[in-house]
Specification:
40 strands, 22-stranded antiparallel beta barrel, single chain, 6-stranded mixed beta sheet, mainly beta
């Protein structure tokens, strides 16, 4: 971070810390203790939406809700605040306002999953736990094998709240990979009164988003439901690609004296043309700002290649594809029943089902990325251009399937000074990934909006059967009225069996390979992952918390790619991995102070905030590298999955909201993170000197703010800022990208109407990247040193939204 930026940040950091400490000693009226979040893991949803108003001083404008129930850092954003960022925004993008969160995508909605980057305290999205109404959403890999993105599970307009635990999630969180915390999304319940809500957004690059929701209201006997529909389209800002999404949500609730029944269903169909990242290397003469595909200019695409199907040599690795896209169709449903077995005893059971049918497509030149060698295995000594349709291009797909179902059972029992919780999570998932190659016919070219058919080559096809069992037990013991201790543990068991109904030909892996992709079973059992924490109410307004917890990430169950044992290049490599490998683990230490109170300091009338210090030890980090067998490797060959040692992280998050009456609030969040590799590793016989280097793509400094002004009851203005500091782009820290500062603006208001047909008519005008900054958004780290890829910052865009109830 440069000295100028540091000088700007330090006064804000000092001011926030001083405000917390001064507020503790101020002779102002203390408010009662903030309302606790719902106690059990299933009911933890009620958190946020209801609790926001309870934990913020009356009359203040709430931006972020800070949990007073947890022994760990836990913050939330309500659905109303999320929609202020941009109506229909991906809830994960809204979380970029929270301390310690670095989120980037190359579209303003945060929907494009190919170029999505999420880091929290040095951990990426694949190392965090994600849930929606308690249903596990998997590890958020782009080629997902065990879940789906939150915005595909739930339409943004139906989000009640999103809760972020930046250090360690609840012991009962159903996840096999929450090394670095959890993000829990919760849906709204049906409205109490019958209503039809209509929303229409129009904006830059032909964006249109139409949302309709019908709420039944109470239809008798405690029954109510809603059903909603969404159609979203937006043209990519730098190429002729149309992002589209159709989605339906439905939810039914029966509230009875004996318990609460909830039924939920989601259908999502999404097509997303993708942009390729741009490679940067000191010796490259051609590194464009953007690297868009060429569709629908097929004539230009044909002229772009020479007779052998090669792009201009001057463009090197930054050549352009004809198109690429992601197509995803998901069906998700759950049934949950909370049984009230007594005044202090609740038993919650939830069954869920998820089916995914997806495909990732790239139509690119046949004479690049090692394709001539691959194709010659299947078509030796033949004219490859002619075989693949005479266009000079071939279409590659990775075709995904997910069929999973699961059961969650949780018991909460309050007895005396104890609040005991225990539960079980079981999931059975059958997933597959097929890599296929298709001709791109010069006389009948395909498009990114249709799924290819009639493959010429099926390179491989995986079928992995995976069963997960997780148990947890904990006790929250109130030793005194102002002091609580919480302790417990969880067990994580995984039983995975990977097969390849279609295996690769040996030479299709590498020139030296003698066999196909590996098959076999791996069972991983970790019976004791403990957690202990404490919460001390220093006063009616101040609360101290501390927590220590151990988590692990189970092995990926993906065939043919990623850091997965079923992607290794030989059976011997797999067998060695199975015999010697350990899952990644982390131990997180947290210590923090919360404060929320009314004040009488002139215009400053209230303050609420939190400061949290943390230390994380991350062990047995796995990395897929190219190497020969070495002593620290799990497996040898062309591709190995190596244990490259540990990472140690130290950091602090400081966030607070200053309330100036009912008209103005200023929220600011500052975070410092230092995630450092502890070990170097070998690639073949070459030492890669990563020891002492910082984790790439993780900024040390970030600062976010949200200023909200309500000059009257019918209008609100919100200005946001997001500063992300310098990030290293390689493991050896020899290359980096500069920091950026982006701003957003939202103005909303009501339209007075004297008609009985439309009610509560509102409008919102939104602008993203208000100052129209340019530069690299985030690096795509793929090499130890010498090069990296990046996506660009999207330009300024504007949108207008009209909402009404009928």
């Amino acid at each position: 971070m440069n000295p100028t930026t540091a000088a700007l940040l330090r006064p804000t950091l000092i001011a926030l810390a001083t405000a917390i400490l001064c507020a503790s000693a101020a002779h102002a009226e203390d408010k009662p203790p903030a309302a606790d979040l719902a106690p059990d893991a299933a009911a933890a949803a009620a958190p946020a939406a209801a609790a926001i108003q309870d934990t913020t001083p009356q009359g203040a404008i709430a931006t972020v809700e800070i949990s007073t129930r947890k022994t760990r850092s836990s913050v939330a954003m309500g659905g109303v605040e999320i929609q202020k960022v941009l109506p229909g925004v991906n809830p994960l993008k809204a979380l970029q306002a929270l301390p310690g969160v670095s989120f980037q995508t190359a579209d303003p909605w945060g929907n494009n999953e190919q170029n999505l980057s999420l880091f929290v305290h040095g951990f990426n999205a694949q190392q965090m736990g994600f849930t929606m109404d308690g249903v596990p959403l998997g590890d958020q890999s782009y080629g997902n094998y065990n879940g789906l993105a939150p915005q595909r599970a739930l339409t943004s307009e139906n989000v009640r709240s999103v809760v972020l635990a930046t250090g360690a999630g609840d012991l009962g969180t159903p996840s096999t990979n929450n090394l670095g915390g959890t993000i829990e999304t919760y849906s709204i319940d049906p409205a109490k009164d019958r209503n039809v809500n209509v929303q229409q957004t129009l904006g830059s690059h032909k964006a249109t988003r139409t949302f309709l929701r019908f709420d039944s209201g109470d239809i008798g006997s405690g029954n109510s439901f809603f059903i909603s529909g969404l159609h979203h389209e937006a043209r990519a800002w730098d190429f002729n690609g149309r992002q589209s999404n159709d989605q339906v949500n439905a939810k039914f609730v029966h509230q009875g004296d004996a318990g609460k029944l909830t039924l939920f269903a989601d259908w999502s169909d999404k097509t997303e043309p993708n942009e390729d990242s741009t490679l940067h290397r000191p010796d490259l003469a051609y590194s464009p700002y953007t690297r868009p595909f060429m569709y629908p200019d097929f004539a230009g695409a044909l002229a772009y290649l020479d007779a052998s199907g090669a792009p201009p040599s001057a463009e090197s690795s930054n050549f352009r594809n004809y198109y690429s896209d992601a197509q995803r169709t998901d069906k998700l449903a759950y049934a949950k029943y909370e049984a009230y077995l007594g005044d202090n005893l609740t038993w919650t059971n939830q069954y869920y089902f998820h089916h995914n049918d997806g495909v990732g497509v790239v139509a690119g030149p046949i004479n690049q990325a090692g394709l001539p060698g691959l194709f010659s295995v299947y078509y030796p000594n033949q004219n490859l251009k002619q075989i693949f349709g005479n266009s000079g291009y071939a279409t590659r797909t990775t075709e995904y399937k997910i069929n999973r179902q699961g059961w969650l059972s949780n018991v909460r029992w309050e007895i005396g000074d104890h609040r005991i919780q225990g539960g079980l999570w079981f999931e059975h998932n059958n997933s597959g990934a097929y890599r296929r190659w298709y001709a791109l016919d010069v006389n009948n070219p395909s498009s990114p909006y249709t799924r290819p058919s009639n493959p010429l080559i099926t390179q491989y096809g995986s079928d992995i059967d995976n069963k997960v069992v997780q148990l947890h037990l904990q006790d929250e013991w109130r030793l005194r009225d102002d002091f609580v201790v919480q302790g417990g543990f969880k067990s994580s068991l995984q039983f995975a069996d990977g097969r390849f109904p279609v295996n690769t030909l040996p030479k299709a892996i590498s020139a030296s390979a003698t066999g196909g992709l590996p098959e076999g079973k791996i069972d991983t059992k970790k019976w004791f992952l403990p957690g202990i924490g404490a919460r001390w109410d220093l006063s009616k307004s101040d609360q101290l918390f501390a927590n220590v917890q151990k988590n692990l990430r189970q092995f990926m169950t993906y065939g043919g790619g990623g850091n997965s044992p079923w992607s290794l290049s030989s059976q011997a490599a797999f067998d060695y991995f199975k015999a010697t490998a350990k899952p990644e683990t982390s131990i997180t230490y947290e210590l923090g102070l919360r404060d929320s109170r009314k004040l009488d300091l002139g215009p400053l009338t209230a303050f609420d905030g939190q400061v949290a210090l943390y230390h994380v030890t991350f062990r047995d980090r796995q990395l897929a590298i190219s190497s020969n067998p070495i002593i620290t490797s799990f497996a040898g060959g062309t591709t190995i999955l190596s244990n490259v040692g540990s990472v140690k992280t130290d950091g602090v998050d400081l966030a607070g909201t200053f309330h100036f009456g009912r008209a103005f609030s200023f929220y600011d969040a500052i975070s410092y993170n230092r995630s450092k590799y502890q070990d170097s590793y070998y690639s073949g016989t070459t030492l890669i000197p990563t020891a002492g280097k910082l984790v790439p793509n993780t900024p040390e400094w970030m600062n976010k703010f949200v200023a909200t002004y309500k000059p009257g009851a019918d209008i609100e203005l919100q200005l946001s800022g997001d500063y992300v500091g310098k990030r290293y782009a390689t493991y050896t820290n020899d290359l980096d990208i500069p920091g950026y500062f982006l701003m957003g603006l939202s103005i909303s208001g009501k339209v007075p109407l004297s008609t009985g047909f439309l009610k509560n008519v509102r409008w919102t005008v939104s602008a993203t990247n208000l100052l129209n900054r340019e530069g690299p958004l985030q690096p795509v780290v793929g090499q130890p040193s010498g090069s990296y890829a990046t996506y660009p910052i999207p330009p300024r865009m504007g949108f207008i939204t009209l909402k009404a109830d009928i």
